[in-house]
Write a structure and sequence with these properties.
- The complex is a heterodimer of chains A (131) and B (437).
- Chain A is of the alpha+beta class and 131 residues long.
- In chain A, 31% of the residues lie in helices and 40% in strands.
- Chain A is built from four helices and six strands, in the order βαββαβαββα.
- A six-stranded antiparallel beta sheet of chain A has the order 2-3-1-4-6-5.
- In chain A, strand 2 and strand 3 form a beta hairpin.
- The model of chain A has no long low-confidence stretch (mean pLDDT 91).
- Chain B starts with 8 loop residues before the first helix and ends with a strand.
- Chain B has 437 residues and is an alpha/beta fold.
- The model of chain B has no long low-confidence stretch (mean pLDDT 93).
- The chains are: A alpha+beta (131), B alpha/beta (437).
- At the A-B interface, strand 1, strand 3 and strand 4 of A face helix 11 and strand 20 of B.
């Protein structure tokens, strides 16, 4: 249910995103999922990679501010309404979503959604109850 | 406008021997009372093995200890005052090198002295009872507004106390109230001039004289201001620790600024050795206040670099002239007329980072549309970074707010990539000042 996500500070400067992606490419880090949130001054690039420690090390060395966060990652029904139903469950239990993005998880062979919520414990209980 | 040339002719044109004798008498008085009442001074005198009786006159001035801006920080707020607080009629404050401001105080007599010194500025520029003086220096704890206000009242003019800001109202007032004199920072004067030009109301102005100071400005800026506003622009110099405005001022011949030597003894020293340098040599300007009661200073190091000229002036004043300060011997910046020290910014950043490390930063100053711009680039680091947008945005905002409240001027804060601020020999270049006067 949890996955380690990397968050990267991206100054709003021409070529900055390319520099960051080049570093990962040169070091053979595989990006599995990615989402970018932006303001006029800067962006936060969030990604799921295959080798978190390696990615963090090479990014930090090249002068990138990077942090790792544990976020929820759950499979979604691969039918229309799959995501809507999941989000509805959170809504009904008054759990707020900070952000989310979806990707295709190769290892699991299906779509997954990554999300950050305000109450992780309750989200877990609601979405992935341990029977 | 009648030609009121001197405010206090007897003092302003006093023969030099008489002036020196007066200075000596006043210096002896000041040294004695400061030894008795000001701990900081007494400790320094004791360190040197000096007693007030060892000082007979200005010839002994060089023996006395220096004083520094850091003294005001160390004795904040009132530790350097020489009179009981009940005698202090007013306090003013200015920027210190750290978050603490420097505080100065005035007795009734000091306020009188101050008004007389600043009145000399206006009288020298021919300003009198028929004039309307628009004071657009900031009122409040800064000495500029109140300083010129008192001057205008003292010479019998009609004072228009505008303070700074609100440009369209400033111009409307200038036109409607018939201002003949404008007092503000030179960059604001230029800004007003451009607005007036844009509005096409230049011929509705009745301005004749401008009194400008609180920041460095060049001859070409002066020419520009005079052209845009149609007035004669006078330079003035002052600092809160010595008085406020009124320490020195240009007469109509504008060949240097006359120091009010009956109140302040100027010296030029070598900033590294402290050795007194002869007139005509450039060095650090030092002042001794010989009449101030509330907050006097002995050999206060201004950090301004300039030259003194003791040759007689065509105006008839015998008080020596200083040229425009040519630079500083410290890292202080003047932005929109306000003193700013890089160390103040460092202190704010350190407090935000939780006192652990000071993030790497760079100050970039420029001038756009005749107004100083002030940007602070702060390197993002892991310590500052968080995964949520809100807190990163909040960080930028928090830094800007704290800087504004500490410095007194608005700052634009930019979070930049780690290691993007250029370092040379391991030291980051802290200040980039792109302004050209």
């Amino acid at each position: 249910m949890y996955i380690t996500q990397l968050s990267i500070f991206v100054e709003n400067k021409f070529g900055r995103l390319s520099e960051i992606l080049d570093v990962l490419a040169e070091n053979h880090v595989d990006i599995r999922a990615l989402s970018m949130a932006d303001t006029s001054e800067f962006g936060i690039l969030r990604m799921i990679v295959d080798d978190v420690e390696k990615a963090k090390a090479v990014l930090a060395e090249s002068g990138v501010a990077v942090k790792s966060t544990e976020v929820i990652a759950l499979p979604i029904d691969e039918t229309p309404g799959g995501l809507a139903r999941m989000v509805a469950k959170l809504r009904d239990n008054h759990i707020s979503i900070e952000y989310l993005y979806a990707f295709f998880n190769r290892d699991l062979g299906g779509p997954q959604v990554v999300m950050r919520v305000d109450d992780v414990k309750r989200a877990e209980a609601v979405l992935a109850p341990k029977n | 406008m009648a030609n009121h040339q001197y405010h206090q002719k007897d003092f302003e044109c006093m023969p030099r021997e008489e002036l020196t004798a007066l200075q000596s008498e006043r210096l002896v008085w000041q040294v004695k009372r400061m030894y008795e009442n000001v701990e900081c001074f007494r400790l320094r005198m004791d360190e040197k093995g000096l007693r007030p009786e060892d000082i007979h006159g200005v010839e002994d001035l060089h023996k006395l200890p220096f004083s520094y801006k850091s003294d005001l920080r160390d004795y904040y707020p009132y530790g350097l005052f020489a009179t009981p607080l009940s005698q202090i009629r007013r306090v003013h404050a200015s920027s210190g090198t750290t978050g603490k401001r420097i505080v100065v105080g005035y007795t009734e007599k000091d306020l009188e002295t101050w008004a007389n010194c600043t009145a000399r500025i206006l009288a020298g520029a021919g300003v009198g009872p028929d004039d309307f003086v628009q004071v657009s220096f900031g009122y409040g704890l800064f000495t500029g507004g109140f300083g010129l206000h008192a001057a205008a009242e003292r010479v019998g003019a009609t004072v228009i106390p505008m303070s700074s800001g609100n440009t369209s109202l400033q111009i409307q007032t200038m036109i409607d109230f018939g201002a003949t004199v404008l007092c503000c920072t030179p960059s604001y004067a230029l800004y007003l001039g451009e607005e007036i030009e844009r509005m096409g109301v230049r011929d509705q102005l009745k301005l004749k004289v401008g009194i400008f100071g609180a920041e460095p400005w060049s001859e070409s800026m002066r020419a520009e201001i005079e052209k845009k506003l149609g007035l004669k622009a006078y330079d003035i110099y002052g600092l809160s620790e010595v008085l406020g405005p009124g320490v020195s001022y240009e007469c109509e011949y504008q060949a240097g600024m006359h120091v009010c030597e009956d109140h302040f003894i100027p010296e030029i020293i070598d900033p590294d050795t402290g050795e007194v340098l002869p007139y005509g040599t450039a060095g650090e300007l030092v002042f001794t206040t010989i009449t101030k009661e509330g907050f006097p200073v002995i050999r206060y190091r201004t950090r301004d670099i300039c030259t003194l000229n003791v040759a007689p002036c065509k105006c008839g004043r015998t008080h020596l002239r200083m040229n425009k300060p040519q630079g500083r011997s410290d890292d202080m910046l003047i932005i929109r007329g306000v003193n700013v020290f890089p160390s103040q910014i460092e202190e704010v950043l350190l407090s935000i980072s939780g006192g652990e490390i000071t993030p790497n930063y760079q100050i970039v100053v420029d001038r756009v549309n005749n107004t100083d711009t002030f940007d602070v680039n702060v390197e993002m680091s892991e310590a500052f970074f968080a995964d949520d947008m809100k807190s990163v945005e909040k960080l930028e905002k928090t830094i800007a707010e704290k800087l504004k409240s500490t410095l007194g001027i608005g700052t634009k804060v930019h979070l930049v990539n780690p290691k993007s601020i250029v370092r040379s020999e391991g030291k980051a270049k802290r200040v980039i000042d792109n302004r050209k006067y």
